[in-house]
Amino acid sequence: MKRVVTIAAAAVAVIAVLVFVVRHRAAPASAPSRSRVSVATVRLGSVEETLDLTGRIGPAAGAQTKLAFAIAGTVDRVAVSLGERVAGGTVLAQLDATPLALSARQAQADARAASAQEAYAQIDRVSVRLRVDEAELARQRALLRAGVVAQRDVEAADATVAADRAAVQSAHDAVVAAQAQAAAASARASSATYDLSRADLRAPFDGVVVAIYVQPGQVVDTTMPIVAIAASTTSLATLDIPATDVPRISSGDLVHVTASGWRFDARIGAVAPAVNPATGLAEVSVVGIPSDVPPGTPIDATVVYGRVRGLVVPQSSLIADPQSGRMLAFVESIGKDGTQTFAVRHVGLGASDSRFAVVRGLRVGERVAAQGTILLLAPTGGGD
């Protein structure tokens, strides 16, 4: 008998979920109370892209780190010698930056040209003409009613206004296209400038040069070690990272570290892409470790390797559709009588962190339920 009751209860729960989905897809949901459902405004912003790793306080096994360039190229010079002591940030080697500098200059010129094209496209050439022709159309209609002009004169004026409106839409589309081209050109210029900045290989921490693997004129890629240095300080940590995740991170990336009650921020010092055959993992060194954290302490680290820009909402404003598994947001509407209602909308989910998420399917300025979202899952009490 208990089993029958359990099955019946499960069936009722499934039916309730299906009724919720049908109701919310068919009509907006009235908020139980504006004081119970807070809202957040959809805005343009960015969300951190992160990678969670584990490791320990102290240098890598063997106490040396092999360093590689972040981009491929031709070695222009090796700036250190074997056994030399170097400070963190010292240039160890350089790639031939000539092609990178040319690419950066070209990308910057393209960005300036695209920006100028955007400014040119935004010049309003048609709205005044549209207003004049709309006034003329109104005049022709008045004259037609008075019997002064023929119908064909009104039709000609109407066609002129239609052409003007098409020109206004075309000008708007041209502005949107020019803005997109300018944004793309600016991104290419930033990327080219960033690549130029990575032509220098710098020491991630104070240390001693213990190996040099290349000569000037040699062509290298991101997997080839250039210089190895041994740490001359204990303010380091080592993280283990799957080889497939190595391309995501680079020297200087922010790291949020938790170590037996300590919480602090550090930076990626260097990435050693060679895989340890014993563990199947590569190693990453972290610099900026407080001196009072004991060596050998296990750590949990969150590496911030990038940011994704887009439409941002709080994580609490999203909930999974119980039928399809897709993400839902509840978009607020305020009636003329001040009634707060919410319409369900499916959204695409991009990058997310512990607080915010980048989504698709909403618009800047829209307001979505942020806290108390679960209350909107309850039956609204009216309608079919």
Radius of gyration: 31 Å
**Physical arrangement of strands within the biggest beta sheet:** 3-12-15-14-13-16
| Helix and strand run | HEEEEEEEHHHEEEEEEEEEEEEEE
Structural class designation: alpha+beta
Explain what this protein looks like in three dimensions.
- This protein is α+β, with helices and mostly antiparallel strands.
- Among the domains are: 26-46 and 309-377, conserved putative lor/sdh protein from methanococcus maripaludis s2 fold, CATH 2.40.420; 64-96 and 200-232, Beta Barrel (OB fold (Dihydrolipoamide Acetyltransferase, E2P)); 102-197.
- The chain is 30% helix and 36% strand.
- It contains four helices and 21 strands.
- Strands 3-12-15-14-13-16 form a six-stranded antiparallel barrel.
- Helix 3 runs antiparallel to helix 4.
- The model is unreliable at 1-27, 30-34 and 379-384 (pLDDT under 50).
Which SSEs are present, and which pair or pack?
Blueprint: H1 2-26, E1 29-30, E2 38-41, E3 43-57, E4 64-67, E5 73-78, E6 85-86, E7 91-95, H2 98-121, H3 127-145, H4 151-197, E8 200-202, E9 207-212, E10 219-220, E11 227-231, E12 236-242, E13 254-259, E14 262-276, E15 281-287, E16 298-314, E17 319-320, E18 327-334, E19 340-352, E20 356-360, E21 367-371
Antiparallel strand pairs: 1-19, 2-21, 3-12, 3-16, 4-11, 5-7, 5-10, 6-9, 7-8, 9-11, 12-15, 13-14, 13-16, 14-15, 16-20, 17-18, 18-19, 19-20
